[in-house]
Amino acid sequence: NLRRRYETSDSQFVRERMHGYMTASKCHDCGGGRLQPAARGVKMDGARETLDITEVTGLTIERALEFFEDLKLNVEGEAIATPILREVRSRLGCLRSVGPDYLALDRARGTLSGGEAQRIRLATQVGSGLVGVCYVLDEPTIGLHQRANDRLIATLRHLTNIGNTVLVVEHDEDVIRHADHVVDIGPGPGQHGGRVVAQGTPAEVEADEHSLTGMYLSGRRCIEVPATRRPLDSKNSVTIKGAAANNLKTVDATIPLGGIVCVTGVSGSGKSSLVNEILLKAALRTVVGTKVVPGPHQRINGLQRIDRVVDVDQSPIGRTPRSNPATYTGIFDQIRKLFCMTTEAKIRGYQPGRFSFNVKGGRCEACQGQGVRRIEMHFLPDVFVECETCKGRRYNRETLEVRYRGRNIADVLDLTVEEAVEFFEAHPKIHRMLACIRDVGLDYMRLGQASTTLSGGEAQRVKLASELGSRPTGHARSLLDEPTTGLRFDDVRQLLSVLQRLADAGNTLVVIEHNLEVIKCSDWLIDLGPEGGDRGGEIIATG
């Protein structure tokens, strides 16, 4: 019945609902190889193994390079294959040089992290051998273990040595120190920034007294190692038995409760498989009651000790311009109630819905409360332009005539978090949440800023602030995947203070991270490895 409804329904809503009853599995005929038996019947002889095309594309980049280096061909085959092999070996060598040598060649594009996808694109450029090109990279060290930084820096240096310019937006200390010229923009974020604070060689920026980046590079400012750590008890823990998702080799992991637990290891060692694929999905299934299927494992003990599960990832907090930090954190409901309590609103009989841009009544109907209108561009991405009727204010004239402390609802949404903290100082519920957003380093953000314009790191910190500002209800476990993405030195310090406050409240934070500052401030470490891909998937050390 479900299959019939899925195949015959014209409703997208019904089809999406039917997806909740489905799970992906490999094709029984080809085993996920995608090709028919005749195509899989053609094999090539390597030095150690004979493989068909699906088996070759299932190799990791490093193993594939070894296979093509050792390929056995006769005289005729050698003559035919020489130019092809030269290209294959060159491209595989470029992929290995930028870091992700643990990835399989047939890895689905959608399963790659942003950093992995960026490094694969970089490898394509390295292999092209172009000169006179300006390459612009936005945080290429995302998802990279400290050990892999040297290989990435060597690749960038190779691009400059052959006659190119490499412009890198980066927070990583190693990359900054290896740069030829550094431009430091600040001094603060948002409206407090936008100026060039210092520029020159890394040594010149380091010596500049006005540069916050220079202060951290020189050691004048630093993130201190905690004087004490929380004593975690292995008896009060969640234990994963027989974890075997992706490259995990049937490992047992004990995660103590009540502190900051950091999961570390080289890229591809199995951190996300252990935390996101098994622990998170199993916890959501047990605690929340969702239908997600966790990765292969024998059992998990201790989930009954958890009351709430919070996945603080870098996915957007909303996918339309209607969503913003005020609506996501819930403070917009309180703000609308405040406007309803004004004398003008009472005279006109306005209810909270009047000040919502999601329902008819008070919003601008020309743009349906979005403040922008979408123009469909055939064969090009859609373009958003400011609404000509409301000039981006979202509301109609009657709604904007109601003011609270001299500001209308559109003016309030245009406040930065820093300004709003002072404006709503007399309202504890709103003030507490705004203070939490400020504490995670987002005081420059506007309350009504469209969620589509937030970076992944900003979205993740809004989620953290929402969790920090909510009323505690039992023991919560929060899972964070590389929360330092997009953060400079001082932002990391602020983030750590927020994580410590959450842990002090008795919550457990499981953090996947490469950043050494976060690792050194944790209460407990679980280190996976020793390498990535097939040579990883084991727990090397805990404590």
Write a brief caption for the model.
The protein is an alpha/beta fold and about 550 residues long. It is built from 22 helices and 17 strands. Strand 7 and strand 8 (about 250-255) form a beta hairpin.
Q: Could you characterize what this model shows?
A:
By secondary structure, this protein is of the alpha/beta class. The chain has helices at 2-8, 12-19, 37-40, 53-57, 61-69, 75-97, 114-128, 149-161, 173-178, 202-207, 212-218, 271-288, 325-329, 331-340, 343-348, 397-400, 409-413, 417-423, 428-439, 456-469, 489-504, 516-520; strands spanning 43-45, 50-52, 134-138, 165-169, 182-186, 195-200, 237-243, 251-256, 260-265, 299-301, 308-312, 372-375, 383-386, 476-481, 508-512, 524-529, 538-542. A six-stranded mixed beta sheet has the order 11-14-15-9-16-17, sandwiched between helices. A three-stranded antiparallel beta sheet has the order 8-7-10, with helices on one face. It is globular and about 95 Å long.
Mean pLDDT: 89
Beta-strand share of residues = 15-25%
Q: Care to count the β-strands? A: 17
Tell me, briefly, the overall form. globular
Oligomer designation: single chain
- Count helical runs: 22
The gyration radius over C-alpha positions equals: 27 Å
Which residue ranges are poorly predicted, with pLDDT under 50 across at least 5 consecutive positions? Answer: none
Sheet/helix structural class? alpha/beta
Share of helix among residues? 25-40%
End-to-end Cα distance = 51 Å
Largest sheet: 6 strands, mixed
How is the largest sheet built, in terms of strand order?
11-14-15-9-16-17
